[in-house]
Amino acid sequence: MIGVIDSGVGGLSVLKELRQAMPQADFFYLGDTARNPYGTRSPEEIKKYALQLGKWLLAHGVTGLVVACNTITVQALDLLRHELPIPVIGMQTDVALLPTEKRVAVLATPATIAKGTYQQSLAERYPAVDVVTHACPGLASAIEHYRREEIEQLLEECRSLLSECDAAILGCT
After folding, report:
1. What is the pLDDT along the chain (173 residues), one digit of tens a residue?
2. Looking at CB atoms within 10 Å, which of 17, 20, 56, 87 has the fewest?
3. In the annotation, is 69 catalytic?
């Protein structure tokens, strides 16, 4: 059985893809909606919660773990791989861009932006690209609870930034 963890329900999109790719596999999805959102929490809290989720799934028989949350991936993937005796796969943070892009916006939770994984990956792969980051506190929660007006307001706040960029990366599932 493969465990899939997320800070809420966003990872259900990852689970859907996994089920299509591996229809014979059994999955156990664990979304931590009680402590959602993770994106405004400290790295220590995120690591603590991620390890709790992983250990709980391990105790319930999973033989592999997919981390369907970018915030958990950037903050706790190494810890999970070290502490759990099963394969642990995180969300892909390496990005591919067209060679014509000069300025790229990264929109993600504050914890994901603070870790700098996307910025580092882009700088290594595309040193000439100007990376602009924008922490979006509240967006994950608004999406989780489908608060449409709040989602629109938060995205409106990003509009001027996005209009100045050639591409945008949404660093959340």
Report:
1. 999 999 988 889 899 999 999 999 999 999 998 998 888 899 999 999 999 999 999 999 999 999 999 899 989 999 999 999 999 999 876 677 767 788 999 888 888 899 888 888 888 888 888 999 988 888 888 887 788 999 888 888 888 888 889 888 887 76
2. 20
3. yes
* Catalytic site residue from 69, 136, 158, 165: 69
Q: How many alpha carbons lie under 13 Å from residue 105 in its C-beta half-sphere?
A: 17
Instruction: Give the residue among 89, 90, 130 at the shortest CA–CA distance from 106.
Output: 130
The catalytic residue among 136, 158, 165, 172 is: 172
Lookup result for tokens 């591996």: 22
| 21's tokens | 């790719």
